Amino acid sequence: MKDKKKTDSRGILRGFGVFATIVGLLLAAVGLTMLMTDAAVDNNLKYSLAIAGIVVAVVGVIFTLAGIRKSKEEKEAQAAPIKCVYCGETNPAGSKFCRKCGKPTVKKCVNCGAILDLDAKYCNTCGVRVRKDS
Ligand SMILES: [Zn+2]
Ligand SMILES: [Zn+2]
Question: Burial code of 30-50, b = ≥16 C-beta within 10 A, e = fewer?
């Protein structure tokens, strides 16, 4: 299980972000509620609580977004080069067309739009039969 360390750190980042967002919103809600209900608490404390809550929530959102963005970058970095099934040319990851023969490197399901392997006979998302051409 330890070989998934990168995935875990992303998860922790996102988890912390979501947690901080929730805690921050709760703090802000408590502070604002006390402000509105004239609770027997010092006004400065109410404002501090509300502002601190908002700050923590914003930090939480930033952490959450950072976690999501990092996972996207890692996903792209991990993407393998695409080998053209028509001519065998190895194209850089993310290529949509073969740089040698110009044929498409990705095929989309006409029914559901899922991206398929070029040699797929059936869509592995919706099960529709894939045309041989296009
Ligand atoms: Zn090719
Ligand atoms: Zn499909």
Answer: ebbebeeeeeeeeeeebeebb
Name the pTM for this structure: 0.46
Boundaries of domain holding 112: 80-134
Centre of ligand 1 from the C-alpha of residue 78, in Å: 22
The structural domain count of the chain equals 2
88 class by beta-carbon count within 10 Å (0-12 exposed, 13-18 middle, 19+ buried): exposed
State which of 60, 78, 96 marks the end of a domain: 78
The tens digit of pLDDT for each residue in 9-53 reads 778 888 888 999 999 899 888 888 887 887 677 778 888 888 999
CA of 50 from ligand 1 middle (Å) equals 60
